[in-house]
Known about the structure:
Chain A is α+β, with helices and mostly antiparallel strands. Chain A is built from four helices and nine strands, in the order βββαβββββααβα. By secondary structure, chain B is of the alpha+beta class.
Amino acid sequence: MAKVLEGLYYSESHEYVKVEGNIGYVGITDYAQHALGNVVYVDMPDVDDEVTAGEEFGAVESVKAASDLISPVSGVVVEVNEALEDEPELINADAYENWIIKVELSDAGELDNLMDAKTYSEFCKE
Amino acid sequence: MENKRTCLYDKHVALGALISPFGGFDMPIQYTNIVDEHQAVRQACGVFDVSHMGEVLIQGKDAERYVNHIFTNDVRNMPVGKILYGMMCYEHGGVVDDLLVYKKGEDSFFLVINASNIDKDWAWIQQQAAGFDVVLEHQSDQYGELAIQGPEAERVMEEVLGLACSELTFYTFKEIGKVIVSRTGYTGEDGFEVYADGAYINECWDKLMASGRCKPCGLGCRDTLRFEVGLPLYGDELSEDITPIMAGLGIFVKLDKDEFIGKEALAKQKAEGAPKKLVGIELADKAIPRHGYTVLKDGQQVGEVTTGYHTISTDKSVCMALVDASCAALGTELEIQIRKKTFPGTVCKKKFYEKHYKK
Lengths: 126, 359
């Protein structure tokens, strides 16, 4: 059973945002890492790149396929998780602990378009 | 159209396998994860349900002459019990399918073809038979198939399944009643394939699972295993547009035979040099080249990736790609477009990992 954490926001393409102040930690959900299987590469944007809600900002590659990362929020990338460059498998170990990018949110109102934990849990069961 | 299911489908579901469509069948892609299953085959033993593969029996007075007519390899002087790999080609040299030919008797040949090509192949085989005294029988529905692969495979075959096979050499087979056992596979490791009816295949599967000595493996790692040792997959490295000469498989094309379909085109291509060639490319970066990605030289497109992975056995991002012949020399510097960026790569041998066959 995939783990879903309370307090996070979730997208239909299985990314999450954890919000602290005006910063959002964006990663893929436990459901997504499980569906992908062994993660072997994470294609991340550069710091200062802009990301837009609903648009692709990188990719997570498992052994068998590449899967686009769709940003759940808009803003500027303030940090990328460099640990994933050498150890992409950290995403399989704990997808929530190992966020992919840290975004300075440009529009906190966008969070209303995302799912809460309960809704996302239901969504994954469908 | 509804996908077909193999005789082991319910057992895959019960094991919690991830099931996906492949070649018209609902097939297990993985049971646990691709890496563990891949390593099981490299280090010990894994079993694959490959019942989706197709089988055709060709018998009759002209069987040898007919098989040689449609097959690029040469079945003349082949002893009974021997197996040959090769292709069926079109007149223009493109490939209908790649296949194994088992010689069951002087007038009896058993063809093993790819699941995704079964209908096309069967139609092709029937079409070409006019004027030959042969009886063709499509037997795909009569056979299930297991591939038992890895350094422990021989012991597992003998001790768990009770199938004596130590005397079989590479690419030979024997028949035990209606069961066919061959020393073949698609992983680069020693191993065996067992063809039999669904009841017997189920019995074998249950014994293998109960023994704990053989890990169930899905098509996911079947692809990573064959890729690492440079074995082609129809649809990726061979196709109607990719000839065996382009794919570097000329040793399976016997141009000294009197005739076979595609001979003229392939002889011409061999003499003149193929316009495109299949190469290996190793990337410096960890980004992964995938099927269909563009290969460039100095910013100009020169080819396409056919299969690519971050290899499990050697931890490198590598691919096979079909490129212009002028870019195919070992050491040529190329680039691969991966999403928005290009990554430098170097042409290398297609074999990314050494095979461990028992000859």
